[in-house]
Amino acid sequence: MGTRWTKAAAMAVLLGVVAACSPGTAGGSGSTEDQGGPVTLKVWGWRQEDVAAYKKIFKLYEDKHPGVTVEYVPYKNTEYDTILKTGLTGTNGPDVAQLRSYGLLQPLAAAGSLVELDSTVPELKEFSSDVLDGARSDRDQKVYGVPFAIQTMHVIYNKDIYAKHGLSVPTTWAEMTAGFDKLKAAGVVPVAATVTDTWMLPIQQEIFGATRYGGIEQRDRMLRGEGKFTDEAWVASIGTWLSTKPYWEPQATGVGYDDAKAQFASGKAATFPGGVWEVAGFKTANPQLNIGVFNAPPAPDAVSQKTLVPGFVDGSFGVSSKTSNQAAALELVRWMAGAEFGQAFTDELQQISPVPGVTPKGEVLAQAVKDYAANPSPYLTYAYFSAGTPGAWDLASKELSNAVLGKVTPAQAAASIQRGVDQWFKPKS
Amino acid sequence: MAFCLPGAGLYSAMVIYPLLTALVYGFFAWEGTTRGPFVGVGNYLEVLTRYPISSELGAALLHNVLFFVGTMAIQNTIGLGLALILHRNPRGKRFFQTLFSMPFLISPLIVGYLWSLLLSPTFGPVNAALKAVSLESWAQPWLGEPDLALPVLILVNAWQWIGGPLLIFGAALGGIPQSLEEAAQIDGARPWTLFWRIRFPLLMPAVGVITVLTFIGCFNVFDLVYALGGTSGGPGGSMDVLGLLYYRTAFRGGSNAIGESSAVAMLMFVLIFGVALLLERLLRRREVQL
Q1: Which of A188, A214, B81, B280 places its Cα 20 to 30 Å from the Cα of A357?
Q2: Is the pLDDT higher at A6 or at B257?
Q3: Beta strands A96-100 and A39-45, pairing class
């Protein structure tokens, strides 16, 4: 008798809890804005460290648009995607939202949570098609955000070390490796590479291997379904990257991302192959560091004879389809596609703005923009083949680490990536 | 019976409810945080058949098994040895028990980061010390060598938890009546026989408890591996375990991450619960009564 009652009570408690917490109950009710009165636009984002900068940037807009207040509302980077997905389904969400690029944008665009901008933001016509790819929906090929930043990848180098050893920026692959040989002989680690943090490996592979597989042309063939990761050129680009292994720290397989950065920042290593976003961190870690960037010249047997600069769009600003201030929100993103926002963005945040005609003030950034504009190359695995599960970027991180360790050949690594991607990727006609 | 209600309520809300939701979530397709249609065992089939997660599941499970076997062999054997030494030499017993249990107080995440710093090939003091005593060939990229990473993980984990078997075996040894040991000695039992015939059978309840606890700990491990090898379990995934695989599915998965990660979580739960029960039964049978 006693146990039966206990069981019944436990079940009752359980059911009560389940009912109270059951998912799917939409919370919140919509607030109606007075269209004629003052408007507050909420801009959601994932950059908590940039709040002060955005306040300054949006002040420029508010000064010219009396009655409009723009508020940047940041969330924790790692939680942002989930919060945004929920926020965009109700009217308590953002008016304008910072959107991730490429693959991560797809579910939001497909769910109808965003307003398409091709027809309403004419300024986008000035942007290059490659840049707009970062904010384009795979489903209807429409653009759903105004791109705000471009990230480029380079061989970041220590100018003082290069000068001390009589080296200049290499113009050929042989010149680059001869420089590395000279540095190695002098007891300097030529390349601060990391293997332990495997997500860095696709970046390193692009930096040294892009010319070997050819960059944009290979991407376009692959998007049309005529090319694959298993193509000779892409497989060989893994070998090209691995051919720099003698210049890495001898025990690079145990070197983490932070260790590699510390090696470069402390002047123990001459170069760090990585994204332009690292530069600010290096400057903070060691203000005396004299930093420059160059890109790997065409490798032996390279498909492209240009010194390619890999890059990708970091994100964009889009308009929620649920906002009650759609006109004001569209006005704001149009401004974000213009030179005033672009210049303020690059000046305040030390990042590359994709707005045509905007030039950054810093020497390193200006160099990066110039080189990327001249010879752009895609971040193939991350940008174009990671919209489904499993994404090529995740697969490449794993398989390239296996290739470094000699557990698989480059051909096997490429076959594994292709096998994963084939499960969901549909070529574009 | 009424005494049980607050406890039962809390337990239901904190343990049974999340378990049930994971079970329910696993039967649906998800679009981000929005629940989609009922798919039955679709998510289970997906994680068991889609490349590469299907092969990663097997590899991660194998690493968990090796981690468990290695921990039993090293941590618990050394723990038993230390407990025996302290049992025989009660001087300083409390001191050493406290000393060996100190790492309990540090979060496994911090232990992991500390050891990854110590073992770093570029700035770490371990390799620097080896080089200083001309043992350069012994200096290794400890966490970057696929064959070394898992043994290093086992050792670091043992460094943190060796106090557990030490305390439990110590208490169990203290519970063995001295008259039994003396009687065996008078009958001419050598130390080896004394241990295997008298002490060890009487330690079986402690062995059982420690085995089950070690099993659960080794199969649920996440934070230490995450700190030592990142989300992919180090180069070549040599330290990839089920906990990391779950994390990747849940937080780096596609739009159906909730559905698929719930399926992974349920598979882990069923495995751990089932094997823990089985272990308990098997070991209970070997216990002897005084």
Answers
A1: A214
A2: B257
A3: parallel
